[in-house]
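Thread title: Can someone regenerate the structure for this chain?

I was given the following input by a collaborator and told the matching structure tokens would be attached. They weren't. Posting the sequence so someone can regenerate them.
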Amino acid sequence: MKFSYETVGTCSKRIDIEMEAGILVSADFVGGCSGNTQALTALVKEMPVAEVVRRLKGIACQGDTSCPDQLARALETSAHMK
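Best answer:
Regenerated them for you:
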């Protein structure tokens, strides 16, 4: 399943996500701090979606959210899309 998630409250504007059988295949950030988003993407690639959410949900940066938190929120939202 592929989908895009419009972020809120971060420098990144969107996350393009691909999941398959409960595994995060890819998460590509549009905008944001390139080095940080590339590192984040590399670390969570091929990880179970539930584990990504568990590890990243609630991480704050410049407010009450962050790129990692937005990825977790996007993945939670995707569960309701199935």
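The chain has a mean pLDDT of 94.
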